[in-house]
Design goal:
With 480 residues, this protein is an alpha+beta fold. Helix content is 39%, strand content 19%. Strands 5-6-9-1-10-11-12-13 form an 8-stranded mixed beta sheet. A 3-stranded antiparallel beta sheet has the order 4-3-14, with no helix packed on it. Helix 3 links the parallel strand 11 and strand 12. The longest helix has 20 residues. It is elongated.
């Protein structure tokens, strides 16, 4: 019998606040020297008292509402006591039995159309630790406290995830929600979205196994690979008659394997007690309503809207999960609202394929490009109207990407599609005279050979002839 994996995730999001969660010290420090963004509270100096950041609370409320959580009533901070060299206070201000959000869920569709509901156990606020750097072969580590005290939101799922692929799909959805709301940049490569994985395995009909925790995974790919490796490792241990111990593991990206960091602490080891310098918060219905009113459209609602407009499911998913793509796409769609509507799927094709490919080749982000939504919509409408061919549109795209109006380019360069049958007939006659062997093949019954004449005709017309008209005239000339 094969083993079944039972997986839960703990996701840490750095909230997009200007100052740290319990002090007025600025939170963004990138590009500055180490230990330059600190203050007495961050450093854990005697007598320094915390002041709760209201913006962090409201961002956490917004995120909780997006995950269908209950955010009402009292919430409270506790001291979570443990010693780490990058935590100068020797405790973390976190939330224990009164988290700000609880009992939510997120529906996660997989690429194959399957998926399921992942329950959210809780989401709570806390302050971040600093960062240790370990120079190669050095007998010491370097401590940078710039990150210490940053606003963090930790979200904990129930053990509803069953595969590496489902874990990745869940994390991608969480990232899309956080970015759409402006709650967090949710950038793993910048340390603004980190993930711990709790995983155990068991056989059908048997109790769940002992779980282990894999800490501080900073990419979706690492999460997938760590789950895959750890599932196989645990199965190998059990098949050999061994037992799994409840440990905390790290992930070796170079070796693609987990390694032991420490034995797992129990809840009692943290000695939680209420933070005496911060009173409990009462989150009222009026406060919730005010926060909800500021929430922008969520990715799941964008996806439904795109599907209703006729966009393919995979493209709707890609568009809805990217803030720059969805903003640009919606702006381009609106350009057709009062004029000739633009085809939603064709617009998506151009944005996700041609435009994205051009941007990737140039190393430019969409929101930094001179391309205007109105111009991409106009380009698609010119193709649909038969004014230009797809080939001409692709030739024009580099100029359109630089901010030029495609309609003006077509007019200035005389690129409108030629529908003059006399000119097309002349090009066909020339192509037939230049390749009599192909003409004979077609007339002998090999109709596919007509494609060998179609290309030269289009080339002779400079790509400006309407393909449908060329095929129709070719068939007439060949007697088909």
């Amino acid at each position: 019998m094969s083993y079944r994996a039972v997986i839960g995730l703990e996701v840490h999001l750095q909230l997009k606040t200007r100052s740290k969660i319990f002090s007025p010290c600025p939170q963004e420090y990138h590009g500055e020297g180490p230990n330059t963004f600190t203050d007495p509270f961050t450093l854990g100096l005697p007598g320094a008292l915390p002041t709760l950041n209201r913006a962090a609370v409201e961002l956490a409320m917004m995120f909780g509402l997006a995950l269908h959580c209950d955010v009402s009533g009292f919430t409270q901070f506790h001291r979570k006591n443990y010693f780490y060299p990058d935590a100068p206070k020797n405790f973390q201000l976190s939330q224990y039995d009164r988290p700000i959000a609880r009992d939510g869920h997120l529906d996660v569709p997989l690429p194959d159309g399957t998926g399921g509901r992942i329950r959210i156990k809780r989401a709570h606020l806390e302050d971040d630790a600093g960062k240790l750097t370990h120079p190669t072969y050095a007998p010491y580590s370097l401590l940078d406290l710039n990150r210490a005290g940053s606003s963090l939101l930790e979200m904990v799922t129930e053990a509803d995830i069953q595969s590496p692929e489902q874990a990745r799909a869940f994390l991608e959805s969480v990232q899309a929600i956080a970015q759409a709301l402006g709650v967090s940049d949710a950038a793993p490569e910048e340390g603004k979205m980190r993930c711990d994985v709790n995983i155990s395995i068991h056989k059908d009909g048997q109790p769940w196994g002992t779980k282990v925790e894999v800490k501080n995974l900073n990419s979706f790919r690492s999460v997938e690979r760590a789950i895959g490796f750890e599932t196989a490792r645990q199965a190998k241990v059990l098949d050999a008659g061994g037992r799994i111990t409840q440990d905390t593991l790290g992930w070796d990206e170079g070796g693609q394997r987990t390694f032991l960091m420490r034995t797992k602490e129990g809840e009692a080891d943290y000695r939680y007690f209420p933070e005496p310098d911060l009173p409990p918060l009462d989150i009222t219905p009026e406060w919730i309503a005010a926060v909800r009113a500021r929430m922008p459209e969520l990715p799941e609602h964008k996806r439904e809207r795109y599907l209703a407009a006729g966009v393919r499911a995979a493209d709707a998913q890609t568009l809805s999960h990217s803030v720059p793509l969805s903003h640009f796409y919606d702006a381009a769609l609106r350009e057709g609202a009062d004029a000739q509507p633009v085809d939603a799927q064709k617009l998506a094709n151009w944005l996700l394929t041609d435009v994205s490919g051009h941007l990737a080749a140039q190393g430019t982000a969409l929101d930094a490009s001179p391309l205007r939504p109105a111009h991409l919509a106009a380009l698609v409408r010119l193709i649909d109207a038969g004014t230009i061919s797809g080939k001409i549109a692709k030739d024009l795209l580099p100029d359109v990407m630089q901010g030029h109006d495609p309609a003006q380019l077509v007019q200035d360069r005389g690129l409108s599609v030629v529908t003059d049958t006399a000119a097309i007939d002349a090009a066909i006659d020339a192509a037939m005279q230049a390749d009599p062997a192909t003409v004979e093949k077609v007339r002998a019954g090999n109709t596919k050979a007509m494609n060998a004449l179609f290309g030269p005709v289009m080339k002779a017309m400079g790509g400006q002839a309407k393909p449908e008209v060329v095929r129709e005239r070719l068939q007439a000339k060949l007697g088909l």
